[in-house]
Amino acid sequence: MNDTIAQTSLKRPFVLSGGGARGYAHLGVLKAFSEHGVYPEAIAATSAGSIAAAFICDGYSTDEVREIFQRHKLGLSMQWRNWRAGFLSLKKVAKVLKQTLRHQTFESLDTPLYVTATNFVTGNQQIFSEGALIPAILAASSVPLLFPPVEINGSQYVDGGLSGNLPVEPLLAEYRDIIGVHVNPLTPYNPAEGFLANVERTLHLAIREPVLKNKLLCSYFIEPEDLGKYGMFEFNRLEAIYTSGLEYTRRQLQQQPVI
């Protein structure tokens, strides 16, 4: 591994995709960028990416966020077999966010954050950048059929990936040289895969075209290929997912440094 730490730091805007358990790879990706002296100037994110982004914009390091996940056993509580026990309400995530986030509003964060969710009535993308932070994160992470919609100011919102899983839009007016991080690589089709794999593939195909368009608006793009072997519901494999994001990004930055 490259132990060289950059002597000067760069600030760049980041956009972090959703991806269920694969969203944990964002911490590995951001860790690798920090090793090269590249830190978020602002972050736009949705779904699982918004959870990671909230901690980073709140001033936590990636190592500190990992410690929070481990201490509160978030991965364990989010495994498929435990959902019937009540995780469908996202109460565990809400509780941990309330206990650990230093700031509870967008305006008080150390780094600007834009969280996107989907209006469950119109299907339009909604950008949250003001007011209460936690309701926006929960709305952005509420996958329909698995989690109930979240009501904010009288409107119902669900997972932001449905209206744009690489939500670069909030950054375009003010920021340049955007770094995109997408944690849902499309894997080769295998007809022998089971029901959950087919559900995931259907979802990824449905939201893929807007991702490809927004990828073109990024000056640097990260999509760890190895993440394809992890399911979006495999919260028991968070450390392997983190390592995949970390090592892939280290290799990419060695080959193509950010300038």
Automatic annotation (TrEMBL):
Which GO terms fall under biological process for this protein? lipid catabolic process
Extract the Pfam families matched here. Answer: Patatin (PF01734)
Identify the domain of life: Bacteria
The UniProt record lists the keyword Lipid metabolism: yes
Q: Please indicate the residue ranges that the annotation assigns to the motif DGA/G.
A: 159-161
Annotated GO MF terms: hydrolase activity
Domain named PNPLA is located at 14-172
Protein name in UniProt: NTE family protein
